Amino acid sequence: MTEDEIQAAKPWYKQPWLLFILTPIFAVVFYGFGFLYLSIVTMDGVVKDDYYRIARGYELNTEKNQNAIDQNIIAELSLDDLTGDIMVKLNGQLTTVPEFLTLDIVHPTHQKYDQEITLKAIGSQQLYSGSLANPLKGKRYLFLFPADENWHLRKEVLPPYEQRSFELKPNL
Q: What is the mean pLDDT of residues 122-147?
């Protein structure tokens, strides 16, 4: 028997061309399961967990927005990104002046860049002060509301933020 006849007599699973054909298929299956495992196990943190619910709530629940409109609430926010200082001057016909305000600084896509800052009242002039935890980079959404959350103000801001002032008003 010649060498070719011996090769031809071997079963199909012992043929040398089989490894050449099956190697890419095995590689695709191996990497596919690897990426499937990574996509299930790891959390990408791209969107804030309750971002859709919050955004939907702000759009659907117009009661908070209407309360801000009825009371003519406007906030002047001064942001110093270099030092991290935040000053808010609250204007309007407030029924009760809150002692604390919450400022949510939300990144549009990455939850790890979100900041929730509690602003404390300074005196009785409706001035509030707080500090940034991290400097801001990129587009942000600002949400300002009191502890009882009976009204809210919203603003979309873009960089640069150094020594910037923003006016937050209810959506009309």
A: 88
